[in-house]
Amino acid sequence: MLISIDPARTAGTINPAVHGQFIEFLGSCITDGIWVGEDSEIPNIRGFRSAVIDAMKALRPPLVRWPGGCYADTYHWRDGIGPRSERPVGYNENFATFEVDTHEFGTDEFMDFCRLIDAEPWLNINLMSGSTSEMREWMEYCNREGETDAARERATNGSVTPYKVKYWGIGNEVWAGGGFMTPGAYADEYRKFATAMPSFKTSVFDEDHLFRIASGPDGNKPLERVTWTRDFFDRLAEYRQPGIQGYDLHFYNWNLDNPEDTPVDFTEADWNRVIRGSLELEDVILEQGRLIREGLARMPEPESDMDTRLTEVQLVVGEWGNWHRTAFTERPALFQQVTMRDAITTAITLDIFHRNCDLVSMACVAQTVNVLNALIITDGPSTVLTPNYDVFMMYRDHRGAEAADLRLGDGDPDVFSFASVKDGQVVVNLVNASMLLPKTIELEFESAVVATGREVLVAGHPTDHNTPGDPDRVRRATVAVDGTPVSRVSIELPAASVSVLRFSLTA
Ligand code: AHR
Questions:
Q1: Given ligand 1 and candidates 94, 173, 248, 373, which is best to mutate, with the most ligand atoms within 8 Å of its CB?
Q2: Strands 360-366 and 497-505, sheet pairing
Q3: Among 99, 140, 189, 319, the one annotated catalytic
Q4: Residues 370-426: tens digit of each pLDDT
Q5: Does 319 participate in catalysis according to the annotation?
Q6: What is the C-alpha to C-alpha distance for residues 16 and 119, in angstroms, rounded to an integer?
Q7: Collapsing DSSP states into helix, strand and coil, what is residue 26?
Q8: Which residue among the candidates 173, 189, 330, 402 is catalytic per the annotation?
Q9: What's the pTM?
Q10: Cα 335 → chain centroid
């Protein structure tokens, strides 16, 4: 199979935020995963598990979304601030978590976490059981500078400096757990909450720095997601439009069909079904991108110069990942092991975002630790990096790069590829999604390049996974490269593998 790349022809810049993360109070994502508490015997930094912090520091994810998800829609931010011993103890039923909720990890801890790993925070407000005043108070607490009660309270809790949170989600999955709303009812709620948000401007001429994210459709409902987006934008088009910068589509690659299929025990048919399932997201993105464009085109012209017309809304994929059947019955809730099957769909998904960088501006994998498509798994004192972590690490160079023109010749349905260019370097991803067959591909460049690096992620067996007893069973490896300038190179791709190749442009 021939893959032709022309680094001189590019199709847009990849927003680093498509490598975003999502953490929520589900199962052991936060409690026992990220957060072990200051008194824990597990090595920690101010209560955060040191091994998680180290791994996240190395990855430097650009964005982290919190506190949910569904959890956000019953969360009162006040329960999670102030001295930890005085915080209320509640109960978390979300997604069968069924655990006492001590609220030890709240707003200040989340901001500390983001600062430690150098990530931008995305806060999701409580649209369902919360109110506009509750949302305003939370925003004031996070962002107000100066001598207000909210700013003073934040200072008392440790941060004189405002958190300057830019990304605010208004509702989560409002078509189901977020209220079983209709798009029209949600659009009306959205208007109210978006309008009630403080602007944090100090002059009417200041730029709007907030990025308000509306809950988008269920990406897994082929009929509903179309009417949802159409009806949501139509409702906004009835009258003047509030500020809306992002539209949050969620897409899970559900793997429910075969009761015998588990995250670490599956057949080739199970493997193929999961790989193929992940591909649908690209069609959903193209479809939603078109629906947003059409929706915006229907916005009426304002009657006066004082009003603005909604002309741009960016597509966001706030939750994505494989969701295997066993996650529903696992303890802690939604726990899944991770094999090359997940690593390959993770690679395919990130490449869908890279390729569609003109449409998708932000995305968050669900979820970073111990839940669903995790990058990190913890078990008591042990912390294990999954093969998904390797894919995110291998793909870091694409952040902020230009998507390069790439053509796949005589298509092999198992081979996926993407290339980007930045600072004179071309980075090429090659995914062999065949569970059993190695592949040989020919890579052809418009002009000569010099290979500077190559990494390969492959397992001894497709069901292999990392455990506390064998933490590096599936780990990326560096492969030696030949530094002779070439314009065509032949590459062997092991079965079930992800490869990243780096080349420098010679001219
Ligand atoms: O990621 C787990 C859950 O999946 C989230 O809480 C919810 O938004 C989605 O349904």
A1: 173
A2: unpaired
A3: 319
A4: 999 999 999 999 999 999 999 999 999 999 999 999 999 877 999 999 999 999 999
A5: yes
A6: 11
A7: coil
A8: 173
A9: 0.97
A10: 18
